[in-house]
Amino acid sequence: MRVLLLLAISYLYVLANAHIFVYHRFGDDKHASTNTTLQELEKEFQYFNDNGYKVVKIEEMIKKLNQKEKIPDNWVALTIDDSYKSFYTNGLPIFKKYNFPFTLAVYVKATEKNYNDFMNWDEIKESAKYGTIALHSYGHAHLTHLSPEAIYKDTQIAFDKYEKELGYKPTIYVYPYGEYDEKVFNEIKKFNFDAILNQNSGSVNELSNVLDINRIALVGNVNIKQKLKYTTLEATWMEPKEYPKDNILKRVVAKVDPSIKSIKLYVTGDVWRDIKVKNGIIDEIVNIELKKERVRVILSTDYYHLTSQIIIK
Ligand SMILES: [Zn+2]
Hints:
Blueprint: H1 2-12, E1 19-23, E2 25-26, E3 35-36, H2 38-50, E4 54-55, H3 58-66, E5 75-81, H4 85-98, E6 103-106, H5 108-112, H6 121-127, E7 132-135, H7 148-166, E8 172-174, H8 182-189, E9 195-197, E10 216-217, H9 224-227, E11 231-232, E12 236-239, E13 248-255, E14 262-267, E15 273-276, E16 281-289, E17 294-300, E18 305-312
Parallel strand pairs: 1-5, 1-10, 2-3, 4-5, 5-6, 6-7, 8-9, 11-18
Antiparallel strand pairs: 12-13, 13-16, 14-15, 14-17, 17-18
Helix pairs in contact: 2-4, 7-8
The structure holds zinc ion.
């Protein structure tokens, strides 16, 4: 019995898992909620170096995913959203010092209109010598609120301006605010990006969908060792697919590995609940009143092995 149990448990963890992290601002204490101090950044980078992690270009992970190959556990990719000036002035020198590649997701309108606090095209071109430049939309809108036509148009404008300035087409798209649903995905997909990145905590392994890649946010002082423990729980989500019109999340339905007998459910604003799983099926009436406009629904076996859905009002 014990052997069977061990076999069942080890099956869940047999996939190798790499991690992708998201940063925003660097050494900019005016915006604490999106900032990473330079001391913290060096601490995290030193941790990667001291513990055998390898910071790779995101393209290397994408290639492994496309070839359905195992991704080494010690691989890490670093991404930076929004192309804030503080990346260029404060962050980039440290990435260069450690020789760590990165993916910088450009908020095109902010650069084009010279918004205060954002990098200009020359700075983005200079950054491109050391990393990959991804597309982070034109207007940085909450895309789930837009019509399909408006989502397509925003992406088209961003795509064309990127190509005109950098001389090549963008290959990676990063959702603004990490917000998306089926409608948003269907429009972005039309541009044939090599990869689309979300902001759902989890890991990347050979079962990951290259058009829905998990990234873990790093802000302020973090326990990087703990963040590296996150692994993706393979699941098929049936419900919820979208934000309920009456703000009540009635039911959660998903399919997971049949060896899982119980699971924890977390919904933003609520508490962790224990839920029974029958033959790999989660089907629970929860009736949770949603108070936030942006809600994450998380299923996890142990807080670290998890899958999540984002639903937006
Ligand atoms: Zn952003």
